[in-house]
Amino acid sequence: MITAERKPIKEIKEMLAPYKKILVVGCGSCVAECAAGGEKEVGLLSSALRMDAKASGKEIEIKEMTLDRQCVYEFIDQLTEVIDQYDIVLSLACGAGVQAVAEVFPKVHIVPALNTTFLGETKEAGLWVENCRGCGDCKLGVFAAVCPVTRCAKGLFNGPCGGSKTDRCEVDPDVPCAWQLIVSRLEDIGRLDLLRKVHPPADWSKQQGKGPRKIKREDQRT
Amino acid sequence: MITESRLKKVLNSGKFAVTAECGPPKGADPEVVKSKGKILKDHVDSINVTDNQTGVVRLSSLAACALLKAEGLDPVLQMVTRDRNRIALQSDVLGASALGIRNILCLSGDHQSFGNQPQAKGVFDIDSIQFIQTVRKMRDAGEIIGGDKLTTPPQLFIGAVANPFADPFKYRATRLATKVDAGAEFIQTQCIYNLKRFKEWMGLVSDLGMADKVYILGGITPLKSAKMAEYMAKNVAGMDIPEEVINRMKAAPAKEQRQEGIKIAVETVQALKEIKGIHGVHIMAIEWEEVVPQIVEESKLFPRPQV
What we know:
Chain A is α/β, with parallel strands linked by helices and about 220 residues long. Chain A has helices spanning about 10-15, 30-35, 40-55, 75, 95-105, 150, 180-190, 205-210, and strands spanning about 1-5, 20-25, 60-65, 90, 110, 115-125, 125-130.
């Protein structure tokens, strides 16, 4: 999933300061799973903004809405009826959602309430970890299902750097050394030979070669 | 004017090589580099110049190497993949050769979060092993990544580093072998304080048939004080300083600790000379270059061979 964290309330308030009528829009997908932008978080943030406005003697009007997905037109369309009644939209979607809404409503001022962070997994309650960079050229098959591009701080393709000590990464002792994981997993399945050959330079054009990427599938287009 | 790598000539002639490290200044003064070169010139075969070591901005290693070259020394250009993509790396490799630099040491580099630019974007377009392979192909096949031909290939003696003290231990010898497969001709190791583990690692390296395929230079860093030993043991990633070495430093009175550190360094050099497959030493006296001549002399490695 795509993970995100809410921006500091001060930064959100600064973006909203000139406006009275605010539409706060959450997203029920990834950012709901990571407890940053779902219905619950929309409610909490809206309450905080209302209380803050009241305390400073400011009059504001907030409407709360949460779409199933803010990155798909069919769901964004639910805003069509109401969006014109508001001065500004505060989106609790990921960066893709914010931009998708902005694209549909070009004349509406829309601002983000979240900092979109990474593609990751819910490791345990309240802990999300990054494990995919979406490089467009997955090599997990060679690296024992541990991604060195994402999980090695230097993104090394040919084994651990000289800083790996007692299975920890030198950059952050809280993080396991990805290469230690790869080596021991390959040892366990008897395939250390996969590391003996030199892995050639990656093709980063699949990640960032020509600006934003797109996937076009004729079989899905009607 | 040297047209060939002195390091390569010394190693090829079967002599025990001595290299030292020179850290460039945090400023634009060429005299700092030149004076470090002067201190080291007669006592070492070649001088490594570090490339923004620990992610701290310093005078560029390429420029410092050119300065040393002009002083008649044989510099070893250290180049990390942290700060340059493959376009810049290959371009600088050509530039180095054009400036008469004849040795290169290919590294990935300390992570940028350790230095004084922690907000920098780490490049790591290619890793150290891919970099070794790239330089080797540029030199031997006259070809860059992607297959384009060079009008004139660079002339460089190609080196890599090895850390026998990092984990996973068994894989460390394999990693060295992979670097040799990629094209490394000489290896400079992390500083050695734990000789027992180093010998164990050399055993594994020999088992892989690598002892005769590559020149290995053992790393030496003289300790300045017991405090430095403790700090390095605790805070420097991939460093292995056994308790007995720290205790030995502590046992010496404060004023004599430097002397004790030099003594340990000399003893380590002597021990390394006896290990099969070790072809030289690489002395990294951090901001203490002036001690190198003493270590070289006391290790009976002076005068240096004329090649």
